[in-house]
Amino acid sequence: MEIAKIILPALLVLGLMVVPLQSFADTTIYSVVIPRSDVDILRNYHAGTGNSGADILVGEEVKTGSSLINQAFNRIIIPLEKEDDGSTLVGTIYAGVWSSTVTPTANNRLKACGSMEANTVSDGLTYYTFSCGTNSWTLSVNQVVGVFYNDSTTLNKFGIFMSTKGSTFNGTNTSLSCYSSSDPVTACGADTGSANSWVDSPTIDLIMNLTLVVNAGSGQSNFCAQPENADILICRNGGNGEAGSAGAFIIGNVSQGTGIVGIGCSLGFVDCVSNPDIKTNGLGLLIFIASIFIVVGMFYYLAGRHAFEMPVFIWILIIIALSAFFTITQVIDPVFLIISIVVIVALAAPKVLGALRGNTFGGGSTE
């Protein structure tokens, strides 16, 4: 039968889709997203009083009891913007991990996660990706993940806005921490009255995303901005320059409008500014639905009307495979995979019950 000729390829496609490819298995260990409720200013120069503290480091500190202890990551995504639009900043911003028991510097990072020139930070709120390289970092107590900026020139009367939010992650066990450099100073939302000290804000979190990315690259996401890399395939499609990251073609760079997700955000399908997480902002669901239509179209192109003669359970398995694939790649929420499994169980239940009744009550002929 014609239908038999397409069931085998269909099962082959299903098998390929449900294989849990580790190249797609990124794991997010910390995620606090916009909208923000306040800002902290990253700079060395102290301009005055109020919310003008001179914090040379702003980050999220891991304390005793934190859920981040023993968690690994190798990518930091963090929103930055200039405090004063059009201002000229000098110096370098460093990202990484520091010990909260010593004075932070550009050279004593426990884990370096790239850097960028301060003046390249956008006037508007923009997400920047910093990669910690191929070797991940495992967090422990008294470590701070964030960014450091310490240029003493008086040209830097303005600095960088760091977005913060009321405690949403792990309570006082993981919270905003800053290192102040002037006296008196308002650091991390607290008036310390002393210079050169760490200041904690146990009811505030830094808006940031920490992710363990398999095969991540290194440095800040400006690899693709280099002229010699402009025609590299991953740069033309992924946009973030993390060569080797299989998810780059899907995720891309939201702020640059590249990749499937970036294009969807730039077209305004969903609000990617207030919620950049595609699993919850609706864009992942749109991609999932579109993939179903694409797969149906592929089968129709190959088998014509016979594609619709396949057993219903084959189509359900295809949807489950797609759900599993996009759950692994962190495009959709796992709830859609659970729903798909529940649906196939519900559809299969009548047949199973019918078979059981047949075996129990049907009997056989005695003639």
Helical fraction: 25-40%
Q: For the CA atoms, what is the radius of gyration?
A: 26 Å
Average pLDDT figure: 73
Low-confidence stretches: 14-24, 47-52, 218-225, 237-249, 253-257, 360-367
Q: Can you count the beta strands?
A: 18
Return the domain count. Answer: 2
SS content category: alpha+beta
Q: What is the CA–CA distance across the termini?
A: 35 Å
Percent strand equals 25-35%
**General shape:** elongated
Succession of helices and strands: HEEEEEEEEEEEEEEEEEEHHHHHH
Instruction: Give the count of helical stretches.
Output: 7
Q: How many strands, which pairing sense, and closed or not: the largest β-sheet?
A: 8 strands, antiparallel
Question: What brief labels describe this structure?
Answer:
367 residues; alpha+beta; 8-stranded antiparallel beta sheet; elongated; 27% helix; disordered C terminus; 6-stranded antiparallel beta sheet; 2 domains
What is the topological layout?
Layout (H helix, E strand, L loop, with lengths): L1 H17 L8 E6 L5 E5 L12 E8 L9 E2 L1 E8 L9 E8 L11 E7 L8 E7 L4 E2 L4 E6 L11 E7 L7 E7 L5 E2 L2 E2 L5 E5 L2 E3 L1 E5 L5 E3 L12 H5 L10 H4 L7 H8 L16 H21 L8 H17 L6 H28 L5
Antiparallel strand pairs: 1-17, 2-11, 3-10, 3-12, 4-9, 5-8, 5-11, 5-17, 6-7, 6-10, 8-18, 11-16, 12-15, 13-14
Describe the structure.
It is a single chain. This protein folds into 2 domains: 1-25 and 217-359, no CATH class; 27-212, no CATH class. Helices cover 27% and strands 25% of the residues. The chain contains 7 helices and 18 strands. Residues 14-24, 47-52, 218-225, 237-249, 253-257 and 360-367 have low confidence and may be disordered.
